[in-house]
Every structure is written in C-alpha cells, then in structure tokens.
Amino acid sequence: MAETKYIFVTGGVSSSLGKGIIAASLAKLLQARGFKTTIQKLDPYINVDPGTLNPYEHGECYVTEDGAETDLDLGHYERFLNVNTSQANNVTTGRIYQSVIEKERRGEFLGKTVQVVPHITNEIKERIQLLGNNGDYDIVITEIGGTVGDIESLPYIEAVRQLKWELGDENALVIHLTLVPYLAAAGELKTKPTQHSVKTLMESGIKADILVCRTEHELSDDIRRKLAIFCNVRQEAVIQSIDADTIYDVPNMMLEEGLDTVTLKKLGLPDDTTPKLERWNEFLKRHKNPKSEVNIGLIGKYVELQDSYKSILEAFIHAGAENEVKVNIESIHSEFINENTIHHKIAHLDGILVAPGFGERGIEGKIDAVRFARENKIPFLGICLGMQMAVIEFARNVLQLKAANSTEMDPETQHPVIDLMEEQKDITHKGGTMRLGAWDCHLTENSLVSRIYGKADIKERHRHRFEYNNKYKEHLENAGMLSTGINPDTGLVEVVELKDHPWFIGVQYHPEYKSTVASPHPLFVDFIKAARTYSRKKNSASLAPNQ
Q: Which residues are catalytically annotated?
C-alpha cells in the first residue's frame, strides 16, 4: 500500500457512548479483511498517564507489554485484535505538554513564542502519525477522548482538522459517534442533539464523513434520511449502533450496518473480500450457549465501579466461553467481609478471586477470604495484591506468625513477609516508577502452574512496588506454600501454590492483561475449569441420599 490511512473517531452529546468499542469493532472488521490495523487513544486529561489515578476516577489502569500505564480502552483494542499495543497507542495532554516544554527548555524553539497552535498541535500530529510512519500498518484508527466542544479537547480537534487537510480526503476520514435519544413521553427518537453535535464539529472546521448513532431503538429510514440531510453525510454513512447484549456482538452489528464497507469506499481501498470472523463467531456461539454455570466471587476494594476490574471481568468471559460455562460474577467488597459475614458471603461460591489493589483499606477482609478458600478447598486465584494476601494469610494462620504483614500496610511489622522492592526504596516520584510491563518467569517442573501453561518459561505483565520477601521462602515452602514461578534474573517469587489444595494459585503479575477473544488466558481457563469441577462435586454431594 502506498501510504497509511487514518481514521479519527470523535464523540458528541454524551460521554460513555462506546467510542472505544466502535473503534475496536471497526478495526476488527478491517483486520478480518486482511488490513494491518492498529488503534490509539488520545486522552485530554493533564495527567501524564492514568497510573496515579484512583480506579473510581478512571477505571482500571491497563498495562502494555512495554510497561506503559494506559487507558482501559487499550484493553479493548488488544482483546478484539489479539495484537499488543504500546506506549505509542496512548497519548495524554500531560505527555504532549511535557514533551513540548522539554523541547522549549532544550532550546529547540529558540526565538519563537511557544503556543498551542502550532506547537501543541504539531506535537499531537506527530504522535498520531508515529504508528503509521514505520510502515507496519495499513490503517491507524485514532480515538479522541471526551466529546466535541470540551475545552480540553480543542487542541486535538484542531490537530485532526489540520491533519485531514494535509493528508487529503482519500487518506483520512472522521467517524462521529453521537446519541439519538428516545423520549418516552413523546414516544419518539430525537435527532436534534446529533445535529447540534455535528454543527459543533463543523464549527471547528471538521466535517464528519460517517455518523455512528447510539440508540435504544431501531432507526427508521426517515430518521436516517433526516440525519443525512441535516448532518451533511450520505445516507449509507448513517450507521445505527443499537444497544447490544455483549460488546462482542458489536463487530457483527457494524458489519451488518456496512460500517467497514463505507469506510473502505471513502478511503479508496478495495472492498473485494469478506471479513473472516469464524473464530470470533465460534467464541460468541460458545459464550451465548453455555452448558453449565459457576459462581465466582470477585473480592475487591473498588467493586462499586465495574470498570475498576474490566480486564478481569473480560478474562472471565473468554475463559467461560472456552469451557462452555456461564460465569456469574459476584462482586464482594472486602471491607464488609469479617468473621460474622464471611460464611454468608462466600460459602456458596464455586471459586474465589482476590483482586489487585493498593493501600490498607479492606485488607483484612481479603485475608479472611483467602483463609476461607484455603480451609474449605475452594478454587482460589490471587492476583498481585491478592497473591500477597495469600502469603500473609498463610504466614499468620499456618506458620503462626500472627504479626505477619506487608510493609505497605504496616511499615513496622515484625514479620514483613511482603516488603518493598529494594530498587523502590529511594524512589520519590509515584508516576511510572513501579515494576511495569512484561517480565520473564520460570515455572517449576511438575507444578500445577506449569501444567496449566504447558511450558516452563513465560512472560507476564506486572504493576507493583512490593514483593514476596525471600527471607521467609524456606519457612513457607516447608509448611506447604510452594514458590513455583521465579523471575530468573531477580529471584522474585512470581507464583505461589498450595500442594494440599486442589486449585490454589497466587500470581504477582496480571494475567488478565493478556487474555483475548482469540487467546483466552490459560490461568483463567483452568481456574474456571476447576470451579466447574468443584461445583459438580458440591452439587452431587448435596443431592446424595443421607447415609
């Protein structure tokens, strides 16, 4: 292909309409037609990255293979495309201004007054084109965060306007995602919010090429024609995006609406292939037609906001489909788990996952949940902080080191079975300074975890400051908590498991980040398989006649 094509996805009327899912769905369709496609997200907030943001503020922080702390939409991109993203796939206003200010300090703009236009907009354009310049991709899709008209989004919209003019109409197009609300009192869909949103976009000098309309009800031909006329687009470029049962339905819905066909036509690309979605549709079939179900407890501190554990929830969907099992997730706030409530909240579960997190709030509830899973032989998976809680629980209740703790929660603890990593002790800046990205791990031969992975050496993504304290390794192993995954360079314990438990694994890394539709993560797949086995045994026991 002569040059990379660029697609920009903007939003109007309301946030949370699903720009990321639309971008990922279009990318999936284009990829399924044979085009090398990637997606990037431009975020208007001034944080350099979401690494220091509370999950209640921004949902989970997604970590890429190269160690970038990014927006959770990058998780959607990877889960849909089964292709790794990187630091270049997520750009924030903070990173843009930081780069421009550093250039100014180095004297690169010597004699010039540094301004939003052209210096900030030029930096944005460079970041947009970074992924396309190396020739790895035929099409780069760029999602602009926020909505048109937001003050903080103006430099991005201006950069898109300039870039669209520079590249030409056949090399760049704008998809505008907007809302067509249904007013129950009037009993009709209203197009005026979309018209105003498109007008605002045009006031910034950008004409939408394609409209994607989020709606709760079918768009009639009359409404499509009205939108086309008043928003200055062709009628076939008015795409309906009706509410779906699952986000994984959206690529097929966009295929039916012809979003990929209109896109290819406007970019002057060949439309002579049919998207190959066999693997995708096989996943959907298994997901929608489960043969059994399991109940999994997600023990966390941020359960009020589902996006806080987005990648974990999606990994369960992938693993459930792989096992033809419906996974019912019960989100349980660890702050409300104690010896009086634990049996009621946890005893009925088929599996327990103790989730990642930071800080001391809700820690004792997580430890109680680990103990219940260990003593009652319930399948257990601990991730990052969840793994650390498993170590603390075992040290307290099996080794009888009652003061055992993490120095994150108690800096003066008598038994720091979890301690601050040595290289972290002199760090004062919080942003981007944890152990991040993919690290090697060697699995012990004949361990449960090595059987699950089917190989001895793996690479998984990390996001943590505190680690298993190797001073207690011998005591823990002698008592039955085995260290079955070790970083070969640092000696860091990455995986623990119990030898007298049917399925009990804690991992310091985040396996959820690498689970995709095409490649469900083996740990989640086997965890759900173990939960199904546990459920069947439990049900068989309850149905057995009294002896």
A: 384, 510, 512
